[in-house]
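pls design
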C-alpha cells in the first residue's frame, strides 16, 4: 500500500477580528480559573471531514472537486506539510509533492542550489543529485537563469524547475496539484508525457486537476470531494460523471438566480405571462432534480429528453463498423416536455481510452451561420411545444483510427450564442457505440486520426 488515509479531518478556527483572537487566548483561562464554563470566540471551519481511501503501489489516482472542496488541504496533509485535526495518514516511499509554485525553494538560492537542496530533502546523496543534474537542467530548459536567485523567476520558470526536480529525481510517489496550469502549452505537454511515463514505470501518482479529461485519461481511480467531504471514490470515468452531475446541479441553481425566473423583464419586451413556461429571456424555469439522475448514466432537468441515439451509415442504415473515409450520421431523437426554445443539441465522441476525440452541436453551426451572414434560420431560435418530438441529424466524415468509440449525447438550453451560460436539460453517457476498422493491405495509418498524408520524391 503506497498511501492510506484513515478518517482524516481538518478544522480551522476563524475569528471575526483580531480582538476575538486575543480574547480566545485570555478569557477561557480566566473563566476556567473562576469555575465558569469556557466560551469560544471563533467559529469552526471544517476543511475536511472524515476522509478515508487507499492508493496501491503504482496506481494513478485523481482528486477532483470545486475550489474550496478541500483538495489542496488533503494533499498538504498527505505530504506532511500540514497536520490533520483527526485521523491518520501513512505513506510508504519517497514522496515528491508539487503543490504550489516554488514550494520548498529558498528564494535567495539560485536554481542550481535549490536543485541540490530539494534532492537532499528527497533523501538523495550529493553524488546521486550530480548524476541526475544534467537531466533536471535539460527538462527545466531555463538556460542561464539556472544560476540566478529563484526570487527573480517568473511563475512559469518556477514551475519548470520544480517539476523537473521532482520527476527527474524519480520519487516513489508523485503528488501534483494545479501548479502545472501556469506552464505554457508545450511544457504542459512534456509534463503530462513525463507523468504518463513515470506511471508506466510504477511510480504512484496522486493528481489534482480541474481538467476532467486529463484526470480521466491519466488516472484509473479518482476521489470526488465536496465541501470537505468525500462524495465518491472509484473508477475515474464514474467519478468524473458524478462530478459533472454535481456541476450540473450547481449550474441549475445559478441559472435560476442568474437569468431565470427572478430576472425582471426589460421595457423592450412584453410582460411575462405567468402561465407561459418561457420567461422574457427565452430561458425556462427550473424543476426539482429528477430521480432518474441517481440511477443511470444520465442527468439533467429533463425539460427536453433524449429518447434515442443512432449511429447510421451514409444511406441512413444502421451500421456498427466503419472504415476511414466513410460518412457517418448520428441521429438524436428528442422530445420536449414543455414549451421551450434556445436549445443546443450536441454530441461528444470518445475512444475506449477515454480521450475526447470531438465535440460539436447545433449551436456551433448556428455560430457559423450568424458569423457568415447566411440567411438560414438558427436552430437556437426555434421554439418547441410541450410534447413535440423532433430529431437532429449530425453528418460527418470518419477519419478515425481503429478503435471502439463511445457517443455521448445531450441537449442544453443556452442563454446566448456564445456558450456563456447554459442549463443541461439531458446528458447521456454511453448513448451509442461504433467501431472503426482498417483494411491493412489496402490503406493503413497509425494514430487516432487520418491526416490524409501523401508523399513525393523531390
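designed seq:
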Amino acid at each position: 500500500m503506497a498511501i492510506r488515509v484513515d478518517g482524516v479531518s481538518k478544522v480551522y478556527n476563524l475569528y471575526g477580528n483580531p480582538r476575538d483572537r486575543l480574547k480566545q487566548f485570555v478569557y477561557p483561562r480566566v473563566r476556567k480559573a473562576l469555575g465558569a464554563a469556557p466560551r469560544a470566540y471563533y467559529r469552526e471551519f471544517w476543511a475536511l471531514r472524515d476522509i478515508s481511501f487507499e492508493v496501491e503501489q503504482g496506481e494513478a489516482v485523481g482528486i477532483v472537486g470545486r475550489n474550496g472542496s478541500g483538495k489542496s488541504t488533503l494533499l498538504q496533509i498527505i505530504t506532511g506539510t500540514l497536520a490533520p485535526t483527526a485521523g491518520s495518514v501513512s505513506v510508504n516511499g519517497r514522496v515528491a509533492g508539487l503543490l504550489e509554485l516554488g514550494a520548498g525553494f529558498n528564494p535567495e538560492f539560485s536554481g542550481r542550489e535549490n536543485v541540490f537542496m530539494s534532492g537532499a530533502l528527497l533523501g538523495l546523496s550529493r553524488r546521486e543529485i550530480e548524476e541526475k543534474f544534467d537531466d533536471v537542467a535539460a527538462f527545466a530548459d531555463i538556460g542561464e537563469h539556472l544560476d540566478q536567485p529563484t526570487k527573480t523567476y517568473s511563475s512559469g520558470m518556477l514551475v519548470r524547475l520544480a517539476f523537473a526536480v521532482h520527476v527527474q529525481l524519480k520519487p516513489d510517489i508523485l503528488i501534483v496539484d494545479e501548479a502545472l496550469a501556469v506552464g505554457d502549452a508545450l511544457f504542459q505537454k512534456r509534463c503530462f508525457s513525463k507523468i504518463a511515463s513515470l506511471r508506466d514505470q510504477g511510480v504512484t501518482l496522486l493528481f489534482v486537476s480541474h481538467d476532467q479529461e486529463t484526470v480521466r485519461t491519466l488516472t484509473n481511480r479518482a476521489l470526488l470531494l465536496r465541501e470537505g467531504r468525500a462524495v465518491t471514490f472509484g473508477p475515474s470515468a464514474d467519478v468524473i460523471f458524478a462530478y459533472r452531475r454535481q456541476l450540473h446541479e450547481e449550474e441549475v441553481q445559478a441559472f435560476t438566480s442568474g437569468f431565470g425566473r427572478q430576472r425582471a423583464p426589460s421595457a423592450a419586451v412584453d410582460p411575462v405571462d405567468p402561465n407561459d413556461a418561457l420567461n422574457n429571456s427565452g430561458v425556462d424555469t427550473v424543476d426539482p432534480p429528477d430521480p432518474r439522475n441517481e440511477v443511470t448514466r444520465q442527468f439533467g432537468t429533463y425539460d427536453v429528453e433524449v429518447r434515442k441515439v443512432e449511429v447510421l451509415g451514409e444511406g441512413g442504415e444502421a451500421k456498427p463498423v466503419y472504415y476511414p473515409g466513410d460518412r457517418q450520421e448520428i441521429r438524436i431523437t428528442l422530445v420536449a416536455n414543455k414549451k421551450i426554445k434556445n436549445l443546443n443539441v450536441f454530441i461528444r465522441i470518445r475512444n475506449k481510452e477515454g480521450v475526447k476525440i470531438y465535440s460539436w452541436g447545433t449551436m456551433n453551426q448556428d455560430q457559423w451561420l450568424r458569423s457568415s451572414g447566411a440567411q438560414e434560420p438558427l436552430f437556437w431560435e426555434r421554439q418547441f411545444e410541450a410534447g413535440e418530438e423532433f430529431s437532429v441529424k449530425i453528418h460527418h466524415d470518419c477519419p478515425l483510427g481503429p478503435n471502439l468509440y463511445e457517443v455521448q449525447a445531450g441537449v442544453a438550453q443556452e442563454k446566448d450564442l456564445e456558450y456563456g451560460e447554459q442549463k443541461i436539460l439531458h446528458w447521456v453517457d454511453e448513448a451509442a457505440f461504433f467501431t472503426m476498422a482498417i483494411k491493412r493491405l489496402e490503406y493503413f495509418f497509425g494514430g487516432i486520426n487520418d491526416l490524409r498524408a501523401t508523399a513525393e520524391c523531390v
